[in-house]
UniProtKB/TrEMBL annotation:
Catalyzes the first step in hexosamine metabolism, converting fructose-6P into glucosamine-6P using glutamine as a nitrogen source. Keywords: Aminotransferase, Cytoplasm, Glutamine amidotransferase, Repeat, Transferase. Its EC number is 2.6.1.16. It is found in: Cytoplasm. This is Glutamine--fructose-6-phosphate aminotransferase [isomerizing]. The active site is at residue 367. Homodimer. It comes from the Bacteria. It comes from Streptomyces doudnae. GO terms for biological process: carbohydrate metabolic process.
Length: 372
């Protein structure tokens, strides 16, 4: 009913709008007054966490994209090797697991059969399983050793939005917590990022306030057949997520690429007026990445692409090559997906509407996939 949708036309729009609160709620009570993480729910003892020799993340769809981003954070802050695998592929290749592997299963619903089977396989090998889940008491957390709940509230739209942002928050918390417990040379950075994270919901709010031009752009592209998405570093999984949203909602051909792979094949797809969305890493910090992507944008534009550039406020280097420029707030490099994903959600939702599609219930899809 209209009331359930809180005045929005679709649950998806309501859920996109709820993201600042969902992010804040997922952080609530998990950062103490001294600025350290207190994740009591992670009932795996500090000694055991110190003994770990790798982290393995299993998930499907959008949750898998959260896992891909988590890998950058976990490896950076903990120096533990981290693998990320589609849950549906995982157990069939006889993965190497033992009691020193921490398996993280990410699932909004907690009922995804592929993810459940992957975690059962991991437990049979003696690994500890930590679930990141949005649904209290669902099967995946019940069968895991510990659970870190995302506090997104119920997500009704089939296309995941607020659950994804809160999965990212939970993944950052796990990465920072492992770093905190295990002690790495990044202690100061970890404390600074915990501080940044505690303020990030305001940045998500600011992005939402500036989405009208993104909606207008989406409407103008309703007749297109293909949209490509490019990113580097944590922007690469964001590109994959932008493409998945477009497939699910707009039923358009969409693909995400690592920008550095362009010249190894995908650049052959570029043709006159093809819309290409590029997620630009921060010019601060890992500035090499930024400079490389700016030349990627130049290259595709020279070949006729219509460039839609998502870049930080104040990043002037992209301006000459952007046919459309979408600004996002300045954020620490690893946290950028929390703000760069939002315009892609709005873009896909508006394109779906413009094409007359059912936003909350895309064809052929179910909210939770309980078969393998
Ligand atoms: C997201 O927009 C999708 N509908 C889908 O990819 C989803 O993320 C996937 O099926 C995993 O679901 P889960 O998080 O409930 O396990």
């Amino acid at each position: 009913s209209a009331a359930e949708k809180g005045g929005y036309d679709y649950f998806m729009l309501k859920e996109i709008a709820e993201q600042p609160k969902a992010v804040a709620d997922t952080l609530l009570g998990r950062i103490d007054a001294a600025g350290s993480l207190t994740l009591d729910e992670v009932r795996i003892g500090a000694a055991e966490l110190r003994e770990l020799d790798k982290v393995v993340i299993v998930a499907c769809g959008t949750a898998f994209h959260a896992g891909l981003i988590a890998k950058y954070a976990i490896e950076h802050w903990t120096r533990l090797p981290c693998e990320v695998e589609l849950a549906s592929e995982f157990r069939y290749r006889d993965p190497i697991l033992d009691p020193r592997s921490l398996v993280v299963a990410i699932s909004q619903s907690g009922e995804t059969m592929d993810t459940l089977m992957a975690l059962r396989h991991a437990r049979e090998q003696g690994s500890k399983v930590l679930a990141i889940c949005n649904t209290n008491g669902s099967t995946i957390p019940r069968e895991s050793d510990a659970v870190l709940y995302t506090h997104a509230g119920p997500e009704v739209a089939v296309a995941s939005t607020k659950a994804f942002l809160t999965q990212l928050v939970a993944c950052y918390l796990v990465a920072l917590y492992l770093g905190q417990v295990r002690g790495t040379k990044w202690g100061d950075e970890i404390r600074a990022v915990i501080r940044d994270l505690s303020r990030i919901s305001g940045a998500v709010e600011r992005v939402l306030e500036t989405m009208e031009p993104v909606r207008a752009l989406a409407r103008s592209l309703a007749g297109k057949k293909t949209v490509l998405f490019l990113g580097r570093h944590v922007g690469y999984p964001v590109a994959l997520e932008g493409a998945l949203k477009l497939k699910e909602l707009a039923y358009m051909h969409a693909e995400g690429f690592a920008a550095g792979e362009l010249k190894h094949g995908p650049i052959a797809l570029i043709e006159e007026d093809l819309p290409v969305v590029v997620v630009v890493p921060s010019p601060r910090g890992r500035s090499v990445l930024h400079d490389k992507i700016v030349s990627n944008i130049q290259e595709i534009r020279a070949r006729g692409a219509r460039t839609i550039v998502i870049a930080e406020e104040g990043d002037d280097a992209v301006v000459p090559y952007a046919d459309h420029l979408i600004r996002i707030p300045v954020t620490p490099t690893l946290l950028q997906p929390l703000v760069s994903t939002v315009p892609l959600q709005v873009f896909a939702c508006e394109l779906a509407t413009a094409r007359g599609n059912e936003v909350d219930q895309p064809r052929n899809l179910a909210k939770s996939v309980t078969v393998e």
